[in-house]
């Protein structure tokens, strides 16, 4: 699959979003550095961790302030926002976070603050704009404390500003914890229009490392189709950005394919995912298996299929489809096999060592996955296969994670 010309497309399930600004890996680069390639599609600036009395915190990315107010003034980030947008990426600002003093006392306060946000970060006018004349693409609500009051009114008023500008597409996102319904945004998610939700599937019983049957993406998919105001809302799988792990969560690609609400993957944060190499792996996986609604992302070519019974020592039972083209023969086979040691299976099929949590180390399970062979080794008369639609994400429980 080739990438669309515009990196972020809300109709796709292959979007990759990552948070930027908290330097969790202690080696955070400038925002612009992360936008020089096509890895991420959407950048979430973290955080506005104080409101309605605005307090911004972007760690080492911005430390200068307006002299008379103490409000952060970030001309370098402003320049990088424009650069990222020129590369087709969306840049939005996250309100909230794991710590901070924020919240509204009434619906009227929420609506009034929407005016302030429009004036300071979008196409309104204010004497102090933290990102100067840069115009953001949206707002993310990462509400992890306080009262639920006022957020629906905030969104309604901000969207009224959005509607007055037909030249630009704006977004509203949320980053709820995976327990459903979310403790702080549950009612708002059912009454306000959201374009996407970055569900934090970590540090909770329902996360990527959950016991079998507890990973609850299906609950969020059901919410998207039934209770969400926007029935086309996109749900992202949120995961930490580092694979150096004490436990492992893995998501089966074919299992996720049935969820029409899937929007892609979100990681916390870009300094972690770039350092660990996970960002590169996620990008490759999304490019390989993603789709964009009615958008055509691959050129149709003739195919032919044959079913075989493979009696190799690996125990494969396969259905194989080969696709010829002018320059290369590509083969895909679906494999079903019995695995007696999950850890051995994963380590033998992946290029990096993966630590598997104890409860999955020695189980007899049947796994189904798809392998693709980008090359045909003529001299050896065989294909070289790789797993193409199993997502493996390793991580540890971070403190103060976004």
TrEMBL record:
Reactions performed catalytically: Random endo-hydrolysis of N-acetyl-beta-D-glucosaminide (1->4)-beta-linkages in chitin and chitodextrins
Entry annotated with the keyword Acetylation: no
Keyword terms: Carbohydrate metabolism, Chitin degradation, Glycosidase, Hydrolase, Polysaccharide degradation
CC terms in the record's Gene Ontology section: extracellular region
Coiled coil as UniProt keyword: no
PROSITE patterns (UniProt xref): GH18_1, GH18_2
GO biological process, one term: polysaccharide catabolic process
Annotated region described as Disordered, given as residue ranges: 291-324
Protein EC: 3.2.1.14
Positions of the GH18 domain: 14-289
One Pfam family linked to the record: Glyco_hydro_18
GO terms for MF: endochitinase activity
Residue stretches of biased makeup (Low complexity): 296-324
Family assignment from sequence similarity: Belongs to the glycosyl hydrolase 18 family.
Name of the featured protein: chitinase
């Amino acid at each position: 699959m080739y990438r669309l010309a515009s990196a972020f497309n809300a109709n796709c399930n292959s979007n990759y979003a990552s948070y930027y600004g908290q330097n969790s890996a202690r080696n955070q680069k400038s925002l612009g550095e992360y936008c020089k390639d096509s890895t991420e599609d959407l950048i979430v600036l973290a955080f506005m961790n104080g409101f309605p009395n605005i307090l911004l915190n972007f760690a080492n990315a911005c430390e200068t302030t307006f002299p008379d107010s103490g409000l952060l003034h970030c001309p370098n980030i402003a320049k990088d926002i424009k650069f990222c947008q020129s590369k087709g990426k969306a840049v939005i600002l996250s309100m909230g976070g794991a710590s901070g003093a924020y919240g509204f006392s009434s619906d009227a306060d929420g609506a009034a603050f929407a005016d302030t946000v429009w004036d300071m970060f979008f196409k309104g006018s204010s004497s102090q704009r933290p990102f100067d004349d840069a115009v953001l693409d949206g707002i993310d609500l990462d509400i992890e404390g306080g009262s639920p009051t006022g957020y629906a009114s905030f969104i309604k008023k901000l969207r009224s500003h959005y509607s007055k500008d037909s030249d630009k597409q704006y977004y509203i996102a949320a980053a709820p914890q995976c327990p459903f319904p979310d403790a702080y945004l549950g009612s708002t998610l059912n009454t306000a229009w959201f374009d996407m939700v970055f569900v934090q599937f970590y540090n909770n019983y329902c996360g990527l490392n959950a016991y079998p049957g507890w990973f609850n993406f299906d609950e969020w998919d059901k919410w998207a189709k039934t209770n969400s105001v926007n029935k086309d809302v996109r749900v992202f799988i949120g995961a930490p950005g580092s694979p150096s792990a004490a436990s492992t969560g893995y998501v089966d690609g074919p299992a996720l394919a049935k969820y029409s609400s899937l929007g892609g993957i979100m990681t916390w944060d870009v300094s972690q995912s770039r350092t660990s190499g996970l960002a590169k792996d996620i990008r490759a996986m999304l490019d390989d298996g993603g789709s964009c609604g009615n958008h055509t992302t691959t050129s149709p070519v003739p195919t032919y299929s044959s079913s075989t019974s493979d009696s190799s020592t690996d125990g494969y039972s396969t259905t194989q489809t080969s696709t010829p083209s002018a320059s290369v023969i590509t083969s895909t086979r679906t494999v079903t096999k019995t695995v007696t040691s999950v850890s051995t299976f994963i380590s033998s099929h992946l290029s990096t060592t993966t630590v598997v949590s104890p409860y999955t180390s020695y189980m007899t399970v049947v796994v189904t996955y798809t392998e693709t062979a980008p090359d045909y080794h003529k001299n050896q008369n065989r294909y070289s296969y790789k797993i193409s639609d199993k997502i493996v994400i390793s991580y540890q429980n971070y403190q103060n994670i976004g």
